Amino acid sequence: MGYFSGYPNKSFVEGQFDDGDHSHYKYTNLPELSLALKTEKGQVVIVGCSHSGVERIVEQAKQDTQDKIELVYGGFHLIPFDQQKIERIAQLLKGLGVHRVAPAHCTGHLAFKVFNQMYADNFVFAGLREVVKF
């Protein structure tokens, strides 16, 4: 088990949001915590709001654990982005070997749709009173 954190006024990974006109989202002054849990199927990464980029959190978790990622669960913070950017991020997660996703709250409705289409049976609804097994 491990956790990955970011601190106020510090991006989790330098360069986050440098492309395009998203620099105003770089520093949210919110601490960021993510948790990686080792399971028999691989790591389950639980993210809070992913202000630093869900794909970068997954990259870091994968690098630090040297294990495959079974599930990413939580807020992906994709509300500020258009469909093309969201599709790129979903493809990045697929490319990183993320088997299942369970996006929640700040992911946004457009991103729910994109991830549901891309992950199909490996898209897990993450709502109130839902049980996620791994």
Total of helices: 3
CATH class: Alpha Beta
The amount of beta strand, in percent, is 15-25%
Report the CATH superfamily. Ribonuclease Z/Hydroxyacylglutathione hydrolase-like
Mean pLDDT: 82
What's the arrangement of strands in the largest beta sheet? 1-2-3-4-5
Can you walk through the features of this model?
The longest helix is centred in the middle third of the chain and has 13 residues. The N terminus is likely disordered. This protein has a single domain, classed as Metallo-beta-lactamase, Chain A. With 134 residues, the protein is α/β, with parallel strands linked by helices. It contains 3 helices and 5 strands. It starts with a strand and ends in a 15-residue tail after the last helix. The radius of gyration is 14 Å and the shape is globular. Helix content is 27%, strand content 23%. A 5-stranded mixed sheet has the order 1-2-3-4-5.
Question: Would you kindly provide a brief summary of this structure?
Answer:
The chain is of the alpha/beta class.
List keywords for this structure.
Metallo-beta-lactamase, Chain A; 23% strand; 134 residues; disordered N terminus; single chain; 5-stranded mixed sheet; 3 helices; globular; alpha/beta
List the helices and strands and how they pair.
Blueprint lengths: L1 E5 L25 E8 L2 E6 L6 H12 L3 E7 L7 H13 L4 E5 L4 H11 L15
Parallel strand pairs: 3-4, 4-5
Antiparallel strand pairs: 1-2, 2-3
Helix pairs in contact: 2-3
